[in-house]
Amino acid sequence: MIKLLSDFAVGEGGKIVRVNGEGRVRRRLFDMGVTPLAEVRMRKKAPLGDPIEVTIRGYELTLRKEEAACVEVELK
Q: Is the pTM of this model over 0.85?
């Protein structure tokens, strides 16, 4: 099942399938290590849902909800 990273609940994880978006946003995600085949797990969500914190490639990364909506993940 494929799901957007922005829709994950705390504790969910999976493998990144695709990074959508254009230009600067997509380039920024790639520069931070958000690339296809990387394992990602939702660690925390702010009370209003923005920003979110994920674990990817052994470190914690904070993303805005609109950035996370560009990342498609296959659930484990």
A: yes
